[in-house]
Amino acid sequence: xxxxxxxxxxxxxxxxxxIRHACDIPTMDHRSADFPPIFxxxxxxxxxxxGSATGEVVLFPATGTGGWEAAITNTLxxxxxxxxxxxxxxSQKWIDMCQRHGLDVHIIEAPWGEGVPVxxxxxxxxxxxxHGIKAVLVTHNETATGVTSDVAAVRAAMDAAGHxxxxxxxxxxxxxxxxxxxxxxxxxxxxxxxxxxxMLPAGLAIVGISQKALAAMETNGLPRCFFDLRDMLSGVYxxxxxxxxxxxxxxxxxxxxxxxxxxxxxxxHRIAEGVRxxxxxxxxxxxxxxxxxxxxxxxxxxxxxxxxAGRIVTHAADTYGVAFGAGLxxxxxxxxxxxxxxxxxxxxxxxxxxxxxxxxxxxGLDVGLGRGVAAAQDYYRSTHAAPARAA
Length: 391
Ligand code: PLP
What we know:
Aminotrans_V_dom; seven-stranded mixed beta sheet; 13 helices; Aspartate Aminotransferase, domain 2; four-stranded antiparallel beta sheet; alpha/beta; SP_NH2Trfase/AEP_transaminase; AspGlyoxATase; transferase
């Protein structure tokens, strides 16, 4: 039996009861007239969350990884050049997927903890006078390091270079939680998953597509079948839709939009700030190297030299039944992560901070019981939280 405690992993996130119930609907004939209203409502809700007025949204029965694959296979052709930075586990995995599909990835290496190196992107784009680069990939929120990159600045660099490449953004751990402006930023393909900001179980790859990407799809493409956007956009769902998940998504977007996206962003920022106050009170630092890069959805906390951060995660799970995120890839054992996205309130965050503190104290770290909690409490009290949302 899973613990009844909230989770503090950076996805899947805690599922509000109303969304859990919304996923649990009786079987319906998805070819009947009952399905299109549910489907259309979910898609228009996602469009509003993405900030896309003119684009399309598709919902694959998949996860964020499937969304990456849909983005690249529908709009790029074999051997096409793409520009990407490698600065964490997820940017690395998307690069790996591109390479496995035979794309020529121009990789700009950046230290883990840094964001997308916009100046290096600008240089590469300006140097590409023949427009060989067909797509620019940005991992908006590197979940492995807790780093949020500046998508608007990448768009500005592309515009300054007069570069026509498609802008593809991984918003798996950002969309629905922190500002995402698909149309304002000129994002051509936006990828999300159901299990993070949308507060659903894993199971939907959510992809926003601009008109420019739709046009690219007509002339370009790698082999694809399950992820063919043309089938998905034909007006008929090309296979059996996960109706319960899609119904849940329509309710999730209702919840987000009725809270108001600006309020959702403000809530995430406030909760994240409280977590960061606790981290500072423990005497630790986030993995993100500057405050401008701090993610409001996940904080990766660097533990002191000689301390295996993985032990904190294991101990918290085994002893207190609370899940935190372990370090991944190059930062495995060096960081542990507190996810603070989705259905999260300051009171929930305080429980997570308190548990992390107990686990670290048990393991002999000199964090001082109550120190982080008090710092977060001070911050939350002084910023006058709105009452927690009913779920
Ligand atoms: N991109 C980011 C930023 C992620 O955090 C994740 C998963 O955590 C993925 C992509 C992969 O998504 P999924 O596990 O849903 O396939």
